[in-house]
Automatic annotation (TrEMBL):
Annotated family: Belongs to the MoeA family.
EC top class, as a word: transferase
Cofactor(s) required, per the database record: Mg(2+)
The protein, known as: Molybdopterin molybdenumtransferase
Keywords tagged on the record: Magnesium, Metal-binding, Molybdenum, Molybdenum cofactor biosynthesis, Transferase
Species in which this protein is naturally found: Gilvimarinus algae
Cited function: Catalyzes the insertion of molybdate into adenylated molybdopterin with the concomitant release of AMP.
Length: 399
């Protein structure tokens, strides 16, 4: 481990590489109704065409295009609704057809009902038909033997609908990553208790547990650790017994009561510490025994920003998911940033009238800034910003 500060991108690549080396894990088959948010462990190839046969895209009349000229009068020989098997279309006739109904053999076009004058069982065409008009051809959406989803894809509601449409009722997915979450700090008190002098409520635990759940992880433990070296080592050892990943908050700086760094070095290996970013500089990455560990800063904004930039891609890599690149936009600044910092800064911001404005309080302890924000502005080390200058923006919506 080097004491030199790594750039955010260097840290991301180091952490992602470690995650990819441990990629995947146990695979299980689950019913479709239990697959939301799970990561596919297989490529999905369709065994059928969707739709399975030519069908009508509109309510109207199925015809032979060569017979369906402007002003032609045709008798209606049958009615075809969705879910019924049509008879072959009689020569010189039309078939009343409803949206989604299978096209009668012999028909090659559908004239919509607004372009037809019907009298009894006879229609007069107000427009000529061309082959293929208003028809959804067999396999238009999905062709048989085509790949529709790839391994590593995290399943969304629309994906489940797609799987159902090709007759898949089960899928092979990776088991969720088991995460042990440890909050360090003797000053921490859980919400619901009365604060004593010197204490603060533990905001990191519910925030990070929710972020981990949002990433599809199973949070197997949520413990609080006092600022005690022996207890820190004991709790880390216990966390490693039942988890695929340990996430801690606090205790990774250089204070007298910051014990996580030393405990990780005693129990395993610390491969990364200190990132050239603000907030979030004191971040530890290593392992306890064979279990990877991320030690996030204790300040809640630092923990949030570091999670999104560094922990989320690690979880994607570990869980078999494709790792998402950061999505940047460039927008003009509505603020003045005169001071050039020594680290990349991620300021909480919002877009108003096409310009980026900053939250007035940028302290790493001001969690209200994250609640207010809709994006992070990346201000490179050594840069100063003037109003109107283009800045790089990371929309929070990507996460």
């Amino acid at each position: 481990m080097t004491n030199q500060l790594l750039s955010v991108e260097q840290a991301r690549q180091t952490i992602i590489a470690e995650g990819l080396a441990r990629r995947g894990g146990v695979v299980e088959s689950v019913p479709l109704e239990q697959a939301l948010g799970r990561v596919l462990a297989e490529d999905i190839v369709s065994g059928i065409d969707v739709p399975p046969a030519d069908n009508s895209a509109m309510d109207g009349y199925a015809v032979r295009a060569q017979e369906a000229l402007l002003g032609v009068i045709l008798p209606v020989s049958q009615t075809v609704a969705a879910g019924t098997l049509p008879a072959p279309l009689a020569v010189g006739s039309a078939a009343r057809i409803l949206t989604g109904a299978e096209l009668p053999p012999g028909a090659d076009a559908v004239v919509i009902q607004e372009e037809v004058e019907r009298t009894g069982d006879v229609i007069e065409l107000r427009a000529a038909a061309r082959p293929g008009d208003n028809i959804r051809p067999r396999g238009q959406d999905i062709a048989r033997h085509s790949r529709v989803l790839s391994a590593g894809h995290r399943l969304r509601p629309q994906d489940l609908g797609l799987l159902a449409s090709i007759n898949r009722d089960r899928v092979s997915v990776y088991q969720p990553i088991k995460v042990a979450l440890l909050s360090t700090g003797s000053e921490l008190v859980e919400p619901g208790a009365e604060l004593k002098p010197g204490q603060i409520y533990n905001s990191n635990r519910p925030m990070l547990a929710a972020l981990l759940s949002q990433c599809g992880c199973q949070v197997v433990s949520q413990d609080r650790v006092a600022d005690d070296a022996a207890q820190t080592r004991q709790m880390l050892s216990r966390a490693a017994e039942g988890a695929d990943l340990i996430v801690t908050t606090g205790g990774v700086s250089v204070g007298d009561e910051d014990h996580v760094k030393a405990a990780v070095q005693a129990l395993g290996e610390l491969s990364l510490w200190k990132i050239a970013m603000k907030p979030g500089k004191p971040l530890a990455f290593g392992r306890v025994g064979s279990v990877p560990l991320v030690g996030l800063p204790g300040n809640p904004v630092s923990a949030y920003v570091a999670f999104q930039l560094l922990v989320r891609p690690l979880l994607q890599a570990l869980g078999g998911q494709r790792v998402s690149e950061l999505e940047y936009r460039q927008l003009p600044a509505a603020f003045h940033w005169p001071r050039a910092g020594r680290r990349d800064e991620y300021a909480r911001a919002r877009v108003s009238d096409g310009r980026v404005e900053l939250y007035p309080q940028q302290s790493s302890g001001a969690l209200s800034s994250v609640v207010w924000a809709e994006c992070l502005v990346c201000i490179p080390a050594g840069a100063s910003i003037s109003p109107g200058e283009l800045v790089q923006v990371l929309p929070l919506a990507q996460w």
